[in-house]
Please model this.
Amino acid sequence: MTDRSPTEEQNVDLARRRLLAGAAAAVAVAPGVMLVATGASARPKGVAADANKRWGMLIDTRTELSDWDTAIDACKTEQGWGGGNNPATDPQWIRKVAIRNKSTGAQATFPVMCQHCENPPCVDVCPTGASMQRVDGIVLVDKHICIGCRYCMMACPYSARSFVHEPVHNQRPHMPRGMGTVESCTMCVHRVDKGQQPACVEALQAKGSNAIMFGDLNDPKSEISRAVSAHVTRRIREDLGVQPSVHYQGI
Amino acid sequence: MAAIDKTTYQEIAGNGSDYLSLIGWLGVFVAAGVAAAFYMETQGHVVTGMTNQIVWGIPHVFAVFLIVAASGALNVASIASVFNKTTYKPLSRLSAILALALLAGGLMVLVLDLGRPDRLDLTYLKQNFRSIFAWNIYFYTGFFAIVVVYLWMMMERRFNKYARTLGITAFVWRLALTTGTGSIFGFLAARPGYDAAVMAPLFIAMSFSFGLAIFILVVNVTYKSSKRPLGDVISFKLKNLLGVFIAAVLYFTVVQHLTNLYAAEHAGVESFILLDGGAYTLMFWIGQILIGGLLPMALLFHPATGRTSQGINIASLLVIIGGFVQVYIIIIGGQAYPLEMFPGFEVSSSFFDGAVHRYAPSLPEITLGLGGIATALLIVALAVRYLPILPASLADPIAEKQPASE
Model:
């Protein structure tokens, strides 16, 4: 397939290191390689993710169907996936799932992505620790040490992960991807660390939709905490006890 | 203490064109397997049959089958060392070699099907001990180490006295190893086809059966082709044992499905395998139960076929075919049935949620799998040629001279 030039390779490598440093600061990566982050409310350089936080999402399933396309397109643009021609093998970090109650006929459509479980089975089964959880609850794959065994994909109750089947193009500097490794929603950790919202949330807000709310579930004053305490929400397969961070309203 | 082993072990001549062409063909298959793996790694797994839904394809079927059979192949040595059944003692060395060879072949396939096999060192450098995979790395390497030392103790006369201790260690280790392999599936709570503790004992029973079936075929073929005498006593003992192991696999299969059927939440996946899963249902009843279970049992215990080498060979071959099908149903069938993300709902998406997933093995995957089998057989073929592994004779008088303790 296509080979990258040495310079491109170096750039990607540098970007990988940056991501790794930012993403895995909590698991103590090599010193000296730290995320180059800017922004007023950014997590300061060299400081580990905040264990007091628990980032989560609340998805309102009663929203316009087109909202979900907005969210998915924003994710593709931000993270550089999508655009393939092989539906069975192309990665999908976030997807629209339609459900229909077999007995009542009631229907709903909403996005499903990595649910950033508190007890993530993907992290438990990963032989090398590539599949990891930050102290603030965000579940990630460290693509430097993923060996591509796909055990996490077997263990995930949500089919949230994709295996990169083909050479990748148009990589984003903040999001290195690699053929032969596994990837999934990062909750836009690179943006969260800069004090921003995930790309899907921001894109929806830009069009005036609040269909996905993002925030700190541990902070009782946050908008998301107030929302999940005011209304009954559901988390997918709660019975498994994995404690997802993504809440759904309206199903 | 075990009786002193008076058996004469002798390398096979291995000069004939048959032997050389066997080595040549096995070499071709090994090379083709490695080439297939290289092709998959450079082009990406898009050239395989795997998808984001069926993430473990036929290479895993080959690998798990070989790894499970490896621990079972050691049984003959274990029976001799651990349980002091001296009739089996002369075949202990072959049993250990076959176990090593099958494990090597299985691991080769498993590793070469990784997304990044070049990062194999990370499985040692970075370990997550909550993962049964990380445990298995120790089970597998430990098995190699223990069986190699065990073989050495058996082959070096002055160390024979330690063979029993090593044999017991190896026996316990192999039980742990197969428990670990079965638990890869048993620990997957989200998958309705797997999440069951019975996976571990089922895999142990499978290992006993598949490993012994391969062992019997290897013994019969090597003795016939090297024109060494092979008596009925040892043959009949082995085939009776195989019959018992086939029954054990059938028993655990019944337990596996009955307990699953009892839980209403698993009714879907059970009906998929047992009733309406199309190819998987057919494979279950025809491949696993009939060809891999009932037919070989009938052949082994029917007086007309059970006392002929053809009957025993065919029965062993059927156990291997049925066993392969069984592993296929567990691995591929278990993934083909959709995850129950929303029980009670119809589910659909661009990611094939709620749909039965399709899988078609690709040529590179099958070639890699066959490469693993060829690797195992090549190791055995070279070992019996260059090491004193095989008894010069397994004719009845010699076999019977050993004090029968049954």
The longest strand of chain A covers residues 94-101. Residues 6-23 of chain A form the longest helix (18 residues). The helical segments of chain A are 6-23, 65-79, 121-125, 151-155, 189-192, 199-206, 223-230.
